[in-house]
């Protein structure tokens, strides 16, 4: 126990990294506390990010009555437009349930929770200020897990129901008929697909020629094709030069692109990047300097330039996933107190919760090509699988990549219903060093989407035997 300090570990932020770090410290017999600047615990993950966005997606899919491969109400008479209130009611319910779970977990592990804005006074001392009270807390070790915030729209402030970031989107009071999404990253693509599935005209603008460049290109091409079938318009290689709010009536947003194009929309969702939420921390007082995007640099053990201060989660950058953030927070706590722990596995899954959803683990084809790794592909279409027919998903695809020489599994890429669940079979085989022979000799429940692994393996085997 660290004497002379209020706590052994103080976690700034109660999202996945801060929560898991505090609980791990408590389980090691340490005095742990978290600081949360929001009204409730859970951080961005519960308040505006992972939980609300994925719950909103499920509400959209429920409205569609199937896997979302078409627009809401399509083919069954006139489109019945849902209300924002109706869609967001389920979001609020799930958010509250997740907060209750996190609060209960922290309480059971005797982790103290401070509500307010954290600000360093010195490397071991943090002031916590809220509208109700203020306090000063000292700690032998500090975990910075404040996450990120959306980068602000250039040249114009956010305006309710007109120009919003992902933080404000799910507080809309009405649904637009036309939506412009600036930024074709993960968040932009996810929301573009969700709103398109509601029958809303969506335009996606991005200065890059290809979105989601870290994913397998065949899978991305399939996603864009399906989104275009839902009338999503992509303006790639374009950049917004100016946003102007026109009071109307009706009120609307006019966007001028650098190419000279002029677009008009009822709502603009700006999601072109995120930055570390470190501006209010007074990091110089702790001896730390963030990068130009507010993020902190850490070593492989999550230590910052100040030995007793660690950082984890989105604030340290890639991969910026809730699941990896949680594991980083746990490992940072272990490192802090000298407890040996296996490092996080290098093969972690990535999920994109668009409609349809995408998931991957391992390497995409273009990276193997660049590295000149000899590989073969095996593909399975959902339309070849009985479960795909049952679900009404005839456009899903699972692709596996195998080394041509030793037949090791190198990567799995999926687009379609339950892709983010299906990927874990491939993740396990990849992590255990398995390959083609496993899939050829094992049996999968029938009818399940897992059968795609058998079909894709047979496809790869036929190619390797030719």
UniProtKB/TrEMBL annotation:
Organism name: Nitrospira moscoviensis
Swiss-Prot/TrEMBL keywords: Cytoplasm, FAD, Flavoprotein, NAD, NADP, Nucleotide-binding, Oxidoreductase
Protein name per the record: Soluble pyridine nucleotide transhydrogenase
One function term, GO molecular function aspect: flavin adenine dinucleotide binding
EC number: 1.6.1.1
Cofactor: FAD
Subcellular location: Cytoplasm
Recorded family membership: Belongs to the class-I pyridine nucleotide-disulfide oxidoreductase family.
């Amino acid at each position: 126990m660290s004497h002379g300090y209020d706590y052994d570990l103080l976690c700034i932020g109660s999202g996945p990294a801060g929560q898991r770090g505090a609980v791990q410290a408590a389980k090691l017999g340490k005095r742990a506390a978290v600081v949360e600047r929001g009204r409730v615990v859970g951080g961005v993950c519960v308040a505006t990010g992972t939980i609300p966005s994925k719950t909103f997606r499920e509400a959209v899919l429920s409205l569609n009555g199937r896997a979302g491969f078409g627009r809401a109400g399509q083919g069954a008479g006139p489109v019945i437009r849902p209300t924002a209130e109706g869609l967001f009611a389920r979001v609020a319910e799930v958010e509250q349930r997740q907060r209750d779970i996190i609060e209960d977990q922290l309480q059971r592990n005797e982790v103290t929770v401070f509500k307010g804005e954290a600000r360093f006074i010195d490397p071991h001392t943090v002031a916590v200020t809220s509208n109700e009270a203020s306090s000063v807390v000292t700690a032998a070790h500090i975990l910075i897990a404040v996450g990120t915030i959306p980068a602000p729209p250039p040249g114009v402030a956010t305006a309710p129901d007109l120009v919003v970031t992902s933080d404000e989107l799910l507080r809309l009071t009405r649904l637009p008929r036309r939506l412009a999404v600036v930024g074709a990253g993960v968040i932009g693509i996810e929301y573009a697909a969700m709103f398109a599935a509601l029958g809303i005209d969506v335009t996606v603008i991005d200065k890059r020629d290809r979105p989601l460049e870290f994913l397998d290109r065949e899978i991305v091409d399939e996603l864009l094709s399906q989104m275009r079938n839902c009338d999503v318009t992509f303006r790639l290689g374009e950049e917004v030069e100016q946003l102007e709010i026109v009071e109307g009536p009706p009120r609307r947003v006019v966007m001028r692109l650098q190419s000279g194009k002029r677009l008009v929309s009822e709502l603009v969702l700006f999601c072109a990047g995120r930055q570390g939420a470190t501006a209010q921390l007074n990091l110089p007082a702790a001896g730390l300097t963030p990068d130009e995007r507010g993020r902190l640099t850490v070593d492989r053990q999550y230590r910052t330039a100040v030995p007793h201060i660690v950082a984890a989660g989105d604030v340290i950058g890639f991969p910026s996933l809730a699941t990896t953030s949680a594991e980083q927070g746990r490992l940072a706590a272990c490192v802090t107190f000298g407890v040996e722990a296996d490092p996080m596995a290098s093969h972690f899954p990535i999920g994109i919760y668009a409609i349809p959803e995408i998931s991957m683990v391992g390497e995409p084809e273009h990276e193997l090509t660049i590295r000149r790794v000899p590989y073969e592909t095996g593909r399975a279409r959902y339309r070849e699988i009985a479960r795909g027919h049952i679900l009404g998903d005839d456009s899903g695809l699972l692709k596996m990549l195998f080394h041509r020489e030793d037949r090791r599994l190198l990567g799995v890429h999926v687009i379609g219903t339950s892709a983010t669940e299906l990927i874990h079979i491939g993740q396990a085989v990849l992590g255990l060093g398995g390959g083609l022979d496993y899939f050829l000799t094992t049996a999968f429940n029938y009818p399940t989407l897992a059968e795609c692994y058998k079909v894709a393996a047979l496809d790869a085997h036929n190619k390797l035997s030719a």
